[in-house]
Amino acid sequence: MSTGTTTTTTREFVLSPAMCGANSLFVGRLGDWTWNAVSDACGVDALTARNADGEPTYLAFQLFDVRGADPAGFTFGDRIDVRTAVFACGAESVATLHRVAPAGSAGAADPTLEPAEFFEDRRPDCLYALNFNRWVSRSAPGSNRGLVRASPPGFTTAHLPELPREHSPRLACAQARQHLTLRDAPTAGEPGFAGFTTDYRIDPTRDLNGVGLVYFAAYFSIVDGALLAAWRSAGRPDAAFLARRTRTRRLCYLSNVDADTVLSAEVSSSLTGSPGGLTDEVVDVVLRDRENGAVVAVACQELTWGAA
Predict the structure, then answer these.
(1) 8, exposed or middle or buried, with CB in 10 Å at 0-12, 13-18, 19+?
(2) Are 279 and 307 in contact (CB under 8 A)?
(3) Is the dihedral of CA 285, 183, 275, 118 positive or negative?
(4) Concatenated DSSP letters for 53-83?
(5) Most buried in the list 126, 202, 205, 225, measured by CB within 10 Å?
(6) Nearest one of 79, 107, 65 to 19, comparing CA atoms
(7) The whole model's pTM is what?
(8) How far is CA 183 from CA 33, 53, 247, in A?
């Protein structure tokens, strides 16, 4: 087991229009910061990495877990402090934890960042993101199917601390694969959406990244689009959708797909409470390849909506 000491890096940003909004833009920035942190900590350049055969290999996201402040709450000109820590998760994997704090806040001033803060003691004004990444390469030229594990020579995590076993992201990924949910625990409540399904065709003009893979952040928009379709089918107003506060966004990536793929999105939810006249809801979204039924991704959101 790795016993290294947690070290953190800090970056300060002023949010520009390309870094924020009620879509995948801010999540995309979190992903960029993950690649930067892993490159700095693990002895490789994630942007140009190649496997032992000299083929490109990519630091692919397998789990993206965002908690705390809603990313949609960030807007033009906000000043933020991003503190990042990197953790070992096996020979070909790595975990990265980010804390995004408003500039000048207590969170911005705190030089420490430990896993316990994310799992047990989150600051109410901060956003946290835990990422679990594995190296993958294409098994066939031009295809995004059947990606294989392939870490680049020189990649090392032996000097890094490990996350506590009870919080290993591998457990969440196994849960998503076996039970098609990322809920922290079984949730009792009245059904919200039940049995709603909608299709989404991968859009090559917006969903692919610079190497032709479906961009990890595009999945967040695809999930939100499926939620919006279910929302409208239930007769809920768009204004309530836009005003919702999302406390957690979790997404487990189980495979990538080609540009001509049609995804089937299954949406279900539980209404778990009504604090102050608002509605708490936990939403599950499962994305499948419509052609063969294979599960592509599993997502979960915890949100509050409605008028007090």
Answers:
(1) middle
(2) no
(3) negative
(4) TS-B-EEEEEEEEEEES-GGG--TT-EEEEE
(5) 126
(6) 79
(7) 0.95
(8) 26, 39, 13
Helix (H, G, I), strand (E, B) or coil at 242: helix
How many other CB atoms are found less than 10 A from the CB of residue 51?
Answer: 19
State the amino acid at position 218 in one-letter form. Answer: A
Q: What is the DSSP letter of 40?
A: H
Q: Which of 275, 223, 277, 274 is nearest to 248 (CA)?
A: 223
Distance CA 102, CA 194 (A): 38
Give yes or no for a contact between 79 and 14, defined as CB atoms under 8 angstroms apart.
Answer: yes
Alpha helix ranges (H) inside the chain: 25-42, 106-109, 115-120, 169-179, 218-233, 238-243
Residue 206 CB burial class (10 angstroms; 0-12, 13-18, ≥19): exposed
Rg (CA), the chain: 19
Query: What number of H helices and E strands is found in the chain?
Result: 6, 12
Q: What are phi and psi of 177, to 5 degrees?
A: -70, -40
Q: What is the pLDDT along the chain (308 residues), one digit of tens a residue?
A: 445 556 789 999 999 999 998 789 999 999 999 999 999 999 999 999 999 999 999 999 999 999 999 999 999 999 999 999 999 998 789 999 999 999 999 999 999 999 999 999 999 999 999 999 999 999 999 899 999 999 999 999 999 999 988 999 999 999 999 999 999 877 778 899 988 999 999 999 999 999 999 999 999 999 999 999 999 999 999 999 999 999 999 999 999 999 999 999 999 999 988 888 899 999 999 999 999 999 999 999 999 999 64
Amino acid letter at 271? Answer: L
Per-residue pLDDT, 274: 84
Q: Specify the DSSP class assigned to residue 24.
A: S
CA neighbor of 105 nearest in space, from 126, 84, 129: 126
Could you tell me which of 52, 254, 256 has the C-alpha nearest to residue 142? 256
- Chain centre to alpha carbon of residue 40: 21
Identify which of 175, 182, 179, 155 has the alpha carbon closest to the alpha carbon of residue 283.
182
